[in-house]
Predict the 3D structure of the following.
Amino acid sequence: MAPPTRASAKQPKPGRALGRRGMSRAEAAAAADAAARRSAAAREWRVWGEWAMGAAKVAAHYGFIPLVIAVGVIKSDPKPSLFQLLAPF
């Protein structure tokens, strides 16, 4: 198969300015606007994700020992009272 000649290349219609990828200016502007919205949405997700991970870290840090105590109370056969559970003697 022979390579296409310069004359056979697709020519734009007169009166229509084409951008980089063969889009009109309006289409290119709409694509740029959509890309900016996606970028802003990704930035928002990243901010909220960082906040959620920070909150989860604090909850895990301060909630681990109470969780272990609660599971120990629930799983023990003679259920101790709270005083017996926390008393050092």
Observations:
- The radius of gyration is 32 Å.
- The chain has one domain: 16-86.
